[in-house]
Automatic annotation (TrEMBL):
<feature type="domain" description="R-spondin Fu-CRD">
    <location>
        <begin position="11"/>
        <end position="110"/>
    </location>
</feature>
<keyword id="KW-0677">Repeat</keyword>
<protein>
    <recommendedName>
        <fullName>R-spondin-3</fullName>
    </recommendedName>
</protein>
<comment type="function">
    <text>Activator of the canonical Wnt signaling pathway by acting as a ligand for LGR4-6 receptors, which acts as a key regulator of angiogenesis. Upon binding to LGR4-6 (LGR4, LGR5 or LGR6), LGR4-6 associate with phosphorylated LRP6 and frizzled receptors that are activated by extracellular Wnt receptors, triggering the canonical Wnt signaling pathway to increase expression of target genes. Also regulates the canonical Wnt/beta-catenin-dependent pathway and non-canonical Wnt signaling by acting as an inhibitor of ZNRF3, an important regulator of the Wnt signaling pathway.</text>
</comment>
<keyword id="KW-0879">Wnt signaling pathway</keyword>
<feature type="region of interest" description="Disordered">
    <location>
        <begin position="174"/>
        <end position="243"/>
    </location>
</feature>
<keyword id="KW-1015">Disulfide bond</keyword>
<keyword id="KW-0732">Signal</keyword>
<keyword id="KW-0716">Sensory transduction</keyword>
<dbReference type="GO" id="GO:2000052">
    <property type="term" value="P:positive regulation of non-canonical Wnt signaling pathway"/>
</dbReference>
<dbReference type="GO" id="GO:0005102">
    <property type="term" value="F:signaling receptor binding"/>
</dbReference>
<dbReference type="Pfam" id="PF19028">
    <property type="entry name" value="TSP1_spondin"/>
</dbReference>
<dbReference type="InterPro" id="IPR036383">
    <property type="entry name" value="TSP1_rpt_sf"/>
</dbReference>
<comment type="subunit">
    <text>Interacts with the extracellular domain of FZD8 and LRP6. It however does not form a ternary complex with FZD8 and LRP6. Interacts with WNT1. Binds heparin. Interacts with LGR4, LGR5 and LGR6.</text>
</comment>
<feature type="domain" description="Spondin-like TSP1">
    <location>
        <begin position="116"/>
        <end position="170"/>
    </location>
</feature>
<keyword id="KW-0325">Glycoprotein</keyword>
<dbReference type="InterPro" id="IPR009030">
    <property type="entry name" value="Growth_fac_rcpt_cys_sf"/>
</dbReference>
Amino acid sequence: VHPNVSQGCQGGCATCSDYNGCLSCKPRLFFVLERIGMKQIGVCLSSCPSGYYGTRYPDINKCAKCKADCDTCFTRNFCTKCKSGFYLYSGKCLEKCPDGLEANNHTMECTSIVHCETSEWSPWSPCMKKGKTCGFKRGNEVRVKEIIQHPSARGNPCPAITESRKCIVQRKRCQKEGKGKKNREEKRKKSNKDEGKETRQESKGRAARRQNREQRENNSKTQPKKRKVPNKEQDLAPADTAH
């Protein structure tokens, strides 16, 4: 071993030197050169830093630089994220998106243009005026659409999703809600009152009949039995009649 090479290194290094840092890494770690001023020092990392991608070889795992416009990459020619000012498209970083695509400033990618999509018109609503369907002759009826797909920045905007038109209805009076409710309440009370009256009359009738029946039974028990008076004409003997 060279005198400047040490075996007892820190930070995942297998071998190192005081001047160059890590010279080799422990298994599964990536070797990468970091520039400090005019000097480059080797370090061993579990994953490659931003702007680098990892390559594995039998003898050593290394971190290689991405293209200048890539922030992260899978290989040197396939970016996964672009630096500021560039839009990602098919692994490349572009300043401007191709025709038929639009720049998404949120994801910094080139995406397909999405146009608005709506449903069919709904049926016309009942003819109304000021929220009522009675008490007028001319009113309005409306129909609506639902938005199925909102457009992207460069997509076709949604059309009007509501339509209104004049309508004519046969004039009719509106029933006042308070009056109608009051009438229903009065009818209910009257019905309950009549039912209660009939029930009380039936109860009184049954009580009177029961009282009369009990009185007749008591009279029959206390009144003495009448003696039978013989008929004189029937009791006369035939002989006396002949005499």
